[in-house]
Amino acid sequence: MQTEQDVGIAVYKYRLLGGPNMDGVTEPEQLQDRTYYKIGEFVYDNAKVVLVVTMLACVGFSSLMLLEPQYIEGFGEGDLESVDGWNAIGEGFSDGESGNVEIFYVLFHHPGLNVSDLNVQNAMRVTVQSFAEHESVDVNYPWNTNNENQSYLISEVDDSWSRVEVRVNLNRDEAKALLADEYDNILLPNDAPEGMQKWVTGNLAIDVTFDMTLKKELIEAELISGPITLIILLLIFGSLIAAGLPVMTGVYTVISAV
Asked: Is residue 92 within 8 Å of residue 156, measured between CB atoms?
């Protein structure tokens, strides 16, 4: 009958000869068939090349810091339409954004025309049609305002600038979700007057614009960095499972954030 000592010696020899637990392996010959061992040999034999490639990769990755994310444009600079529209609104309109409803505006520029023009009115109606048909939304058009409140929707500086007020009678999260779903449908019709432009603006619109931009850039960053990170970790750990754990953690984080 084998004693505990005999069993211990047998286990030790099994490990020494290359069993599943390689903690006791000290002979390089027993590891030569391992992928990680071969990678180590390659790195050792081509140390200068690996060093140069590594340094170039570090410089290349560091250069990504020079890329300016789109959401930076929202802080007073750049061409995000909500910010440009907000600047135009601040110059010629009175402020009526108050109360418990969520409000955003569709700002229009119709050069040489004012809101009394039927073509301008039709273009405005079509642009916000998807919201006008929603039961939780009230749409206020500039041609329906009286003279006393005219400056709220028609610019006092230049009447070729006007805006449509969209009042969403929902809580903020639901209002943002509604605007995000319908954002791509806020389009000028093909028969709009020549030169007519529109901007979606207001606090609610700016929030939604930032959310959509951040979501897009977060996904793009993960798609670019994920495979690169996996390759680097695979070289470090020598195991697909071990390398995949940090990558999958990052993927889950992005999914949760989105």
From this structure: yes
Q: Which of 200, 221, 214 is nearest to 72 (CA)?
A: 214
The Cα diameter of the chain in Å comes to 108
**Residue at 164 is within a domain:** yes
Query: What single letter denotes the amino acid at residue 9?
Result: I
User: Is residue 56 included in any domain, yes or no?
Assistant: no
202 versus 99: the higher-pLDDT residue is: 202
For residue 120, give the nearest of 196, 199, 198, 186 by alpha carbon.
Answer: 196
SS3 label, residue 1: coil
pLDDT at 189 over 50: yes
- Number of residues that this document lists for the chain: 258
Which pLDDT score, from 0 to 100, does residue 76 have?
45
Task: For residue 46, tell me if it sits in a domain.
Answer: no
State which residues form the domain around 169. Answer: 80-211
Range with top average pLDDT, 141-145, 189-193, 211-215: 189-193
Tokens 């006791």, residue located: 24
Task: Please provide residue 24's backbone torsions phi and psi, each rounded to the nearest 5 degrees.
Answer: -95, 0
What's the pLDDT at 88?
Answer: 63
Q: Alpha-carbon distance 195 to 139, whole Å?
A: 24
pLDDT in tens, 207-228: 888 888 877 777 777 777 777 7
